[in-house]
Every structure is written in C-alpha cells, then in structure tokens.
Amino acid sequence: MLEPIRHSLDFQRIILASTSPRRSEVLRHLGLHFEILPSLFEENLNPKDFASPADYAVETAYRKVLDVAERVANDVNKADIIVGADTVVCLDGKLYEKPKDTAAAVKCLSELSGRQHTVYTGMVIKTPNATVKFSEKTLVTMAYLSDDVIQGYVRTREPMDKAGAYGIQGLGGTLIEKIDGDFYNVLGLPLHSFCKHLLWLYDDQRKKDELKRDIGEY
C-alpha cells in the first residue's frame, strides 16, 4: 500500500514514540527506517473523562507524540513523521492496561477468561504540516482458562508489559479462540489503518507540491 510514497519515506526522519517491541516489529515489516524515542508522558489521563475507550487511547497517543515533538523541536535534523500509539483492552466498560504486578495480571486474565473483549488502539501520526488521529478496534475471544493455566502463563512474565496481560503473538496466542478484526491492532499498531492514513498524508502533500510546481509557485 505504501509503494506510491516509498521513495519519499526513505528520506524522512521517522520517530516512533514508543518502546513497544511489537510496534517496532510491525514498522520493520513495512521496511521503514525509523528511530525509537520513548515518550516521557506520564500516561495519567483519567479514562472517565472520555466518551469512549477509543477516545482515551487516541488522546494518550496524542500526548505521547506532543512530548516527543517538543523534545526534538530544536534538532538540526527535523522530525518528518512522529508516530504514537496507545492500546487498551475493554470488557464490560472496564479498561485493562498493562498489569502493575503479577497479582494484577492474574486478576485480569481471570476476568477475561471465557469472554469476548475489545482491543482499542489509538494512533496519531504527526508531520510538520498535519496531524491525523484515528483508532481501531478488534474483538478477541479468550478461551476458558483454568487457574493452573493462568498461573503458569503469568510465571512466564510475558503478560507484564502488555495491555490485557497477554501477548497474542507469543504464548498468549494459545489462550485466544478467535478474533474479529485486525490482528496487528492487538499487537498495538493497526497495520492497514496506519498505512492508509500515512498514504493519505503523504500522497495528498505530494499532489499539492506537484500542483504548486505546475503553477510556478516553486
């Protein structure tokens, strides 16, 4: 999908405002050259202040991007694209983010066991000329998990840095019966939506630049 703007992207300074290895892996699969600069935003927004989990995730992602944008504003090599994301898991109106400890991970998995939950990822792409915000949701059905299975999985430590306390790309994938939606969204970076919005941003700018050249503004 990004082939029409591939040449342009190769010359852009792209910053991922996240330390998530899953998000980095998705971007690498696209063949993008990018650097990682973790946001220092405290992620202390109150979900109750937002109309939906998606809005909460988008605003958190936006704050991450703003933090990084401010920190690199005076760099000689200006940032061309800053990407931020935030992922939350929701069940019955309750949000499940990264568990604070193993007890929280056990509690989370026990509540998700045998139920269908929703994974929301909010994303922001910021360029010097525009900022786009969007979200994606995926329905995930978790199998019924015995206490032994939950305890054993938590002991692997895999759940500890993941929203919802599971990693679908790893051992956590064995806990999932089915999904409805973008698999990559559950990893924390909805691949199709990201590419669609990035293409729109850069293809639109490319067309504007070509028009300016045609009418002699350059």
UniProtKB/TrEMBL annotation:
Annotated GO MF terms: nucleoside triphosphate diphosphatase activity
CDD domains: Maf (cd00555)
Pfam families, alphabetized: Maf
Entry cofactors: a divalent metal cation
Signal peptide (residue range): none
Record keywords, A-Z: Hydrolase
Matching InterPro entries: ITPase-like_fam, Maf-like
The keyword Metal-binding appears for this protein: no
Record-linked HAMAP family: Maf (MF_00528)
The protein, known as: Uncharacterized protein
